[in-house]
Automatic annotation (TrEMBL):
UniProt membrane topology term: Multi-pass membrane protein
Pfam families, sorted: PLDc_N
GO CC term (a single one): plasma membrane
Protein name as annotated: Cardiolipin synthase N-terminal domain-containing protein
Coiled-coil region: 89-123
InterPro entries per record: CLS_N
Keyword Cell membrane: yes
TM annotation in the entry: 37-56
Amino acid sequence: MLRLLMYLVPLALTIFALIDCLNTPEDEARHVPKIAWVFIILLFWIVGPIVWLAAGKVRRPPAGGRTPSEWHRNHQFEQVAPDDNPEFLKSLAEDNKRDEQLLKNWEADLRRREEELRRKETGEEPKDN
C-alpha cells in the first residue's frame, strides 16, 4: 500500500498543478510563458508541480477577510427597505397611474361595444358624437 502511495501522491500533485496551470490566465504565469510551464510540469513530474505551485503564478490574497471585493469598492450600496426607497415608491405610483388609465380606456371601449351591440339588436342608427 505504501508503494502505491509513493506513485499516487506525485501523480495527484502533477494533475493538480497541470489543471491549475491550464486554468491560469496567460498574464498571470510568472518567469516563463504558460506553455513552458506545462512542459516543465509534465517533464519534471515531481519537481515541476512543486516549482509551479511555489513560483509559477501570481498569488493573490483570498477574497474573504477585510479586503472588500472589486464590486464593493466601486459601488457604495446601502440596502433600503422597498417602502423606504423613494425610487421604488415613485415607480409604484407611475405603474398605478398607467394601470388606472388602461382600465379607463378598457371600460370606455367596453361601453362603446355594448352600445353598438344594443343598437344592432334594436336596429337603431348610430349616434354621431
